[in-house]
């Protein structure tokens, strides 16, 4: 069984494919969680559950740059004070035989972190809530 390498991964802010990538991103994590509700009735010997709603969040990190995509995220979080909806695409691989990507039609920024050290490159990270979940189109 082949594994998917992350070398061709990317995160972008547009809904078209191929989308304009946010520069200098080194890693991302996409989390999709399913909630559940306890439906156990009185007298039951075992717990029963039903799936309720899903939530999706994303985190991305890399080096701080003057890239337009990074600037858009920083401006939305820092200068305007608003969390405008963004279309985000998370691409794990662009290999034609193993292409894997997910997209969310409405991403709300929840955090931006900028870091600096004397002897290193400045760091950048962002966290988003993906309203309405994420889509995984079959290819």
Structural overview:
The model has no long low-confidence stretch (mean pLDDT 84). The chain is 9% helix and 47% strand. It has a 6-stranded antiparallel β-sheet with strand order 1-4-5-6-3-2, with helices on one face. It is mainly beta and 139 residues long. The radius of gyration is 18 Å and the shape is globular.
User: Which regions are unreliable across 5 or more consecutive residues at pLDDT < 50?
Assistant: none
DSSP E strands, number: 6
Give the CA-based shape: globular
Major sheet strand order: 1-4-5-6-3-2
- What is the percent of helical residues? under 10%
Termini separation (Å)? 19 Å
Secondary-structure element order, N to C: EEEHEEE
Tell me the structural class: mainly beta
Biggest β-sheet: count, sense, barrel?
6 strands, antiparallel
Q: What share of residues are in beta strands?
A: over 45%
* Average pLDDT taken over every residue: 84
Radius of gyration: 18 Å
- Tally of helical segments: 1
Task: Give structural attributes.
about 140 residues, 1 helix, mainly beta, 6 strands, six-stranded antiparallel β-sheet
Topology, pairings included?
Elements: E1 10-12, E2 25-38, E3 49-63, H1 68-79, E4 86-93, E5 100-115, E6 123-131
Antiparallel strand pairs: 1-4, 2-3, 3-6, 4-5, 5-6
């Amino acid at each position: 069984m082949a594994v998917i390498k992350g070398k061709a991964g990317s995160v972008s802010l547009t809904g078209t494919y191929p989308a304009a990538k946010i520069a200098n991103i080194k890693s991302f994590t996409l989390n999709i969680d399913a909630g559940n509700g306890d439906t156990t009735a009185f007298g039951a010997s075992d717990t029963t559950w039903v799936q309720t709603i899903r939530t999706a969040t994303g985190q991305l990190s890399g080096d701080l740059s003057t890239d337009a995509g990074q600037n858009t995220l920083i401006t939305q979080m820092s200068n305007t004070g608003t969390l405008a909806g963004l279309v985000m695409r998370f691409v794990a691989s662009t290999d034609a035989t193993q292409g894997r990507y997910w997209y969310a039609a409405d991403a709300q920024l929840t955090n931006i972190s900028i870091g600096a050290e004397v002897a290193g490159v400045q760091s950048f990270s962002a966290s988003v809530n993906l309203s309405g979940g994420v889509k995984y189109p079959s290819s």
